[in-house]
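Working notes for the structural subgroup meeting. M.R. asked for a predicted model of this chain before we commit to crystallization trials. I am recording the input and output together here so anyone reviewing the notebook later can reproduce the run.

Input as submitted:
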Amino acid sequence: MIGRLQCVVLDCTAPTELAEFYAALLGGSVDRPDPRWSLDADWATLHTPGGMVLAFQRVPDHRPPQWPDPAHPQQFHLDIGVADLNEAERQAVALGANPLPRPSKEDSGAEPSWRVYADPAGHPFCLVQE
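Returned structure, recorded in token form:
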């Protein structure tokens, strides 16, 4: 092992607002004091209940990915496990998530066990049935 993952950093135009979106989605505390980072208007953090840290970095000319356009690739995405896909979707959309196109059926012919959304800054993420 060379190192440990400290956090996942998402570029955006409004770091605190995006941190608050993910706090409402995942729980945790926004901008908790942490000696690894200084917090300012260009950087916000979310310490999740499971110990993972998401960080949000201001990029004034941020251009969000477009799903599923390979000319504007997603760059990365988060998979978020949920017990009830429909209820999780309702709550995520109420927080400001935007549903993105998804396949109508998986190879098995069943409804997909995951759904794709964009966060308020345009980053894709999936809600996945546990």
